[in-house]
Amino acid sequence: xxxxxxxxxxxxxxxxxxTEWEVATQVVxxxxxxxxxxxxxxxxxxxxxxxxxxxTARPGDTAEQLLxxxxxxxxxxxxxGKGQVFSAGGEGGGGRA
Length: 97
What we know:
Blueprint: E1 2-6, E2 9-12, H1 20-36, E3 39-41, E4 44-46, E5 52-54, H2 63-80, E6 85-87, E7 95-96
Parallel strand pairs: 5-6
Antiparallel strand pairs: 1-2, 3-4, 6-7
């Protein structure tokens, strides 16, 4: 389920995954590849590079806690440069996904 959080930030919530981390990273890299594709709009080439932060729900998490971890990972990815993917601390090894 996708949703806009505000400005240029979006969330994608994936539920009931068989292997949360592996499937999440596969989805994220497919999304990143699609966003890197150049499109022509009114004769202008448009590219939408993205930085992505990943977090998986932990038992007892509130939505706010999950989004806060994803947001922290996103800002790490943004600091590393466009087109980067980072995971929340401790998830999937933490750091670059």
